[in-house]
Amino acid sequence: MRMRATAAIVPLLLAGCGVFLLVGSLESALFAQLTVSGLANGGIYASLAVALVLIYRATQVINFAQGALATFATYVAWQFIAWNMTYWLAFSLTLGCAFVGGIVVERVAIRPAGRRGSVLSIVIASIGVLILVEGSIPLIWGTDVRFFPSAFPARTIHVGGVAFQLQDLGTIGVSIAAVVLLWILFRFTKLGLAMRAAAFRPEAARLVGVRVGWMLSIGWGLASALGAVAGMMAAPSPSVLLQPSMMDGILIYAFAAAVLGGLESPAGAVVGGLAIGALLNLLGSYVGWVTPQLLLPAAFLLMLTVLLVKPSGLFGRTSVRRV
Amino acid sequence: MRAPTALRFTVVGAVALAIALMPFVLSDYNRSQGARVAVFFIAILGLNIVTGYTGQISIGHGAFMALGGYTTAILTHSHGWSTLPTLPVAAAVGFGAGIVVGLPALRFHGVYLALTTFAVALAVPQLATNYSHFTGGVEGLPLPSHTGIWLYGLGWSVAAVMFVLSWLLLRGRTGRAFRAVRDSEVAAASSGVSLAVHKTLAFGVSAAIAAVAGSVYVLVNAFVNPDIFGLTLSLYILIGAVVGGLGSLWGVLVGACFVQLLPIGISNSHTVSAQSVPVIFGAMVILVMALLPRGAAEALFWATELPKRIRRVHSSSTPQRLEAQ
Fold it and tell me: Would you call B57 and A293 a contact, using CB atoms and an 8 Å cutoff?
């Protein structure tokens, strides 16, 4: 009975949010613009959140280095562009580098910590990676804030009196496309099946010949590549800019998004990311006392509320802990 | 495996004496560096109680330091208090905040707790920036400056008090309960250890100690602003605890020296750039987690224990059970 009630609440809640955003957008052009630019931020949070969820599903740990790895990848992309590559060539090369980098991190830092220790050891090792990677950026590229070009022209298109930034629409598009591609990989390919099997039941997967260790590494690689997408989409924004700590705040929003979606569910992370992006943008613009400094605590408060009220999130399964 | 009590007291006494005599050979600048080591010592001690002994990870101890630091700064700057009476107030504020953070910790496990405390570490400086009429905002608040010897004395006296209090707390019934919670919550609960009481208590005590560290920290700095309590501080405390050894009071000293003195050593040596400090720290954390999950304490343990074990294996044919700690 209780199960059914909560199951019905989630779609209702989401439908309510959707209707609220839609009606608001039809009522006011400003509201529509804010919603779309919020959703663009949300797309970035969503990609990073999905990356976190990928790793959480496979290894039951949160990768605290996700943001730092994304920042590093964005610097790599900046370097490629500085070497006169076209944007999209640099973009795809960076994805390749990030993929390999993710695998290396898993092999070198995470797996040795997991072999002997507990979840605590892996979490701390990932924080070690965070410190190492974020610290190596000033050594390689210096501490200056850099401007990262956008893939999309700085134009606006007008739809029914509302001016949408092309940059925002492009960011939403790229983020969604990346997540959908990943979903196709997991749902329809043999590799995806093997990866799901390795995450879901490692021993059984090993028995039928899945190389579980490699599947975990590939999972980290994919998550790292997805994070790179988020970094490259976030860096052009004037409120972010390419700097060593640029993803620290975004990582918290991604945490909140992943938790809102239930940590286990990629779809939940996407919805959570978009919702948090739109919500925070509207909150920051319409509620007078919510200053930009309060957005991060607001996301934290949201995360805390979800964890306390419904720890399995909007889309997660309720897990039964066996003692 | 425990060394005899007399030996242990001798070693503690020798270390305490060395720390007490140190300021007589140091320059005034190095004395204030020594005071900074004391700050890290206190903070890492606090973190160790909750993470090392009770197994509840906290990445947000910089936030508790910020609370303590701002308590001291606001009381002295805006309310005309003298310095020392603010320390107990900071401890009380920290204790309260620790209980508040510890309450959700009853429901969160492992990664969720890590997430929450990480977010606290990032959110608190933002709050301090926002409510600038209390905290002075980005510019912060000035505090009276003190001589290096005064700071050194204050830092290490507070550190000694905290160390003894922690030792008394951890050696008895409460400490046993903490360790039981860390090793197996189920076993602890079924032996009559209240998880709720001990987890929140551990958070409260730990946060109170961290808050006192924060008070000393702002006194050493002679100013306070949100930046000095950034994510880096929280991470450095964690690095110190990990490198020194989670669940070891000895490791705290090693960790504090590592975190505070290594960067200075590196910038003095001129062979490597000072910017490479985070890289070395990160690599150390990864290495320690891979090779010695219990940090320097474990290295020390093996260094003293290995020769004995080898001798024992040689002298008797019965296989020895190897157990860590």
Answer: no
